[in-house]
Amino acid sequence: MKSISTFQRLVRSAAIAAAFSIGFGSAIPALMATPTENYGLRLLPAPRNIAIDGKVEDWNLAGGVLAMDDAAKTTEDFGVWIHGAYDSENLYILARWLDKTPLSNPGDTKLDAGWSGDCLQVRVITNYGDKEKEQRNNLTCWRGKDGADLLELDIPSKEAKPAWYTKNGPAGDNLKLKGAKQALLVNTDGSGYSQELAVPWKYLTKDGNAPKPGESVILTVEPNFTFGENKNRITVKDIFRPGVALDRVFTFRAYPTWGVAKLMDGAATIDPEPVRLADGRTFPVRLEENLPVVDWTGLVESKVKPGWIPVTFTLPEASYVSLHIKNAKGQVVRQLVNGELLPAGANTIMWDGLTTPNWNEPGQALEAGTYTWSAITHPGLQAKLRGVASNAGRVPWDDGKGSNWGGDMGNPVSVDTDGDALMLGWGMAEAGKAAIFTDLEGKPVWGHKRGGIGGARYVALDGGVCYIMDNSTYSGRLAAVYKFTNAMDVVPWTDNNSAERGFKELGAMETEAGPVKGFTVKGGRLYFSTEADGGTVYITDAVSGKFQRKVALAGAGAIAANSKGAYVVSDGGTKLTFIDGATGAVKPVLMDLKNATAVALEGKNGAGSTSEPESIYIGTGAPESCVYVYSAATGKEVRTIGDKGGRADLGVWRATALRNIAGLAVDKKGQLWVAEDEDKP
Known about the structure:
The protein has about 675 residues and is mainly β. The protein has two helices and 47 strands. The radius of gyration is 32 Å and the shape is flat.
């Protein structure tokens, strides 16, 4: 963000010979965003043998609407024309995008939700108001960084699903596998792209029947744009119902605000409708060679008053301007402009030759003479970040690939290392990242959050692969695990090439076994514990995802591992038990622990070493709230890290005290990393 460091000063002279009662004029751009607000969409009869190829020549474009987030500022950069058509088999949608970075969604179609970047979301309700026949449909249509594209249909979770529905994509059922079609074609000049869809009515209606000409469906759209180096997102909401209070935040569930899309009769003559803005203004649309063109005349309104003495100057950028007229003695006689936002370039302010008016009287005529003017400008009062409590990073928000901003809706809960890098996990994130991959100095390399709200209750690193347990997965499972390379490429589970694997499959369970209590991956084996049958540890091949064995262990909880096996906190946090990864054999390691909540290993060659660990770190909860270090060879306590008793809720903050220890890791430099499940600094 830009901060004010200096004020620019402009000084010129103006001669007047008489005084006249005249005003000034200047074009002042709108300060507030002005989104489009179109009411309804006309679905035109589709031409015979329409080709789904991304080309527009076979479309009648007269019935389209233009959706924009801010018409006054983004008429050439971010907008999308939405056109609709129909026949007895399909609903057709054509989106013509104005987008100078076309098809730049940062997500991977094997795992991520499309709305994090370039993506068209179309929401359709068929047989609206009929309790027996109504079906609500959310279409998410996009191409990912992996080059694949999806046309996903999601039916809201609380509604009954038809027999054909299978959630085989990150955000729904990929209808391309069932006959739906999608084509994406970038404009030759790079100014945008076309996206063409054909969605069978049989998937959009409960009875499988298409609506008839003259009937209507309910429809709204949410186009998403990727922009900027940090892959930020602009979301547009449009096609609404008139006369109702709109919800532009949770539009996806504000069904009464969605617009009406009427199936037009083929005999009807269609003329383009004007573009409508949220402030009620409309702008005419005409067709030029079958392409709709908007006449934006009057989009930026001018505040113009007559005047006869020009004061002209040039601004290098749009700025707030205060300009004073002075007499020969240097006294201010007229405050002509006060904090007005003026555009970059040449500006002319007209002066009427009067003094400054006040609340109850107009300005007074000045005597003839020579007057000068001066002005100060600035780009706007803006904040400059100096620091924020409990965050040592750049800014306290997600600002791109190297952001250190983790879960904005959850606490740090997990940490792991393979010796050379770190993985940090937060319980929940919406605006931030649930998992962050860093170097050993804690400098972020990349971060990830799955879907609109995602979590990383457990993370693990092994063999150059990052494992993330998403405890808020959109798959409908209790939890699932997905994998990335250190370069953030998705790593599939090799037995079925899937991007994620639920714990039910990982543990070969007949039913979900309750909350996961511990998780790690080392030496090619994935270990996790649950409360099933009083405590169970599951061992799975970390590459294929195939279940290997389970081991009964009372009160199984937190887990650390090396290539030989797992060290599991057990018996309600009072013991540490070793489980051989190859055989499942069990032996006690440490006894008489005090409320152990986390465990980490330190070997001769770093974390995950094939050698026996030299030291074992045990994190404890209240009342101790510290880390005990034990000799792996003797089982004896070597030292304590952190003040016993931990950090209190209130009082002076102590750097040597810990609180709510949820995860531990020791890197190859011997640095101990502690995840504190705590929202206080």
